[in-house]
């Protein structure tokens, strides 16, 4: 484990297995950090599992897959460096004593994947399964502030908008895949003028027919637990 990953590991020490969060149409919920020095010295079973060798190996595999898919570092012969940068709890985790893996719950790792000076931010979602190791579900690269549910809802309209842009360059283009989602303006505070609290902006990158297009997207919480999105410059 790299020094950066060790530091991230320490932030997860003392994580409670009973922590509960839902994958609602809001930003993901970061895992809590230890509140005392004693907690930092005594890692819980769940903390040790979430940043253990098996989970890091899954992040490595995810990073390699995305690098290959995006055509990155094809000629680089140097080693990869994994730097965990965030853990988000999507559903309450149940990790009973005597079990090698959690039997229920879901969580998302965000990590920096570096090789030959190129740094990419990737994500991986893990879904616990009773009697088996967690199911790994690769997530869109980048530091999106959207939850998995909000991302899926936005993807419908965003893909259609990306196809319209791609069609202007290649009339026969019928496919567009989301390959990156980056936070460009973090959530606003309640006292910022003319914008509701929580409002934030991202840039989503789609690839289709050998071309990439970017869509600026604005997200606005409705104050009732939901979030609306608007694609800037859609028309």
Short description:
Helices cover 26% and strands 35% of the residues.
Cα distance spanning the termini: 48 Å
Structural class: alpha+beta
Task: Count up the domains.
Answer: 2
How big is the Rg?
19 Å
The helical percent reads 25-40%
- State the major sheet: 5 strands, antiparallel
β-strand number: 9
H/E series, N to C?
HEHHHEEEEHEEEE
Structure description:
The radius of gyration is 19 Å and the shape is globular. Helices cover 26% and strands 35% of the residues. The chain has a five-stranded antiparallel β-sheet with strand order 1-2-3-4-5, with helices on one face. The chain has a four-stranded antiparallel β-sheet with strand order 6-7-8-9. The protein has helices spanning 3-12, 37-41, 45-50, 53-70, 148-169, and strands at 29-30, 81-94, 104-115, 118-129, 132-139, 177-185, 200-208, 211-221, 227-231. With 235 residues, it is α+β, with helices and mostly antiparallel strands. Mean pLDDT is 82; it is low at 1-27 and 32-42. The N and C termini lie far apart (48 Å). The chain has two domains: 3-139, no CATH class; 148-231.
């Amino acid at each position: 484990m790299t020094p950066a990953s060790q530091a991230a590991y320490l932030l997860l020490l003392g994580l409670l297995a009973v922590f509960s969060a839902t994958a609602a149409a809001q930003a993901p919920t970061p895992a809590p950090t230890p509140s005392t020095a004693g907690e930092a010295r005594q890692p819980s079973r769940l903390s040790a599992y979430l940043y253990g060798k098996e989970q890091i190996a899954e992040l490595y595999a995810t990073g390699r897959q995305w690098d290959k898919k995006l055509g990155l570092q094809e000629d680089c012969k140097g080693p990869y460096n994994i730097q965990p940068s965030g853990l988000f709890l999507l559903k309450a985790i149940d990790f009973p004593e005597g079990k090698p893996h959690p039997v229920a719950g879901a969580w998302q790792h965000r990590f920096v994947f570096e090789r030959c000076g190129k740094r990419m931010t990737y994500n991986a979602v893990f879904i616990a399964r009773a009697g088996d190791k967690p199911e790994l579900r690769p997530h869109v690269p980048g530091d999106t502030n959207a939850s998995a549910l909000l991302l899926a809802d936005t993807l419908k309209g965003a893909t259609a908008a990306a196809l319209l842009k791609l069609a202007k360059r290649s009339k026969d283009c019928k496919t567009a895949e989301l390959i990156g989602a980056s936070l460009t303006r973090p959530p606003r505070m309640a006292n910022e003028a003319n914008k509701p609290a929580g409002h934030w902006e991202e840039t989503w990158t789609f690839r289709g027919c050998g071309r990439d297009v970017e869509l600026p997207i604005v997200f606005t919480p409705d104050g009732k637990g939901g979030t609306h999105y608007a694609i800037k410059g859609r028309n």
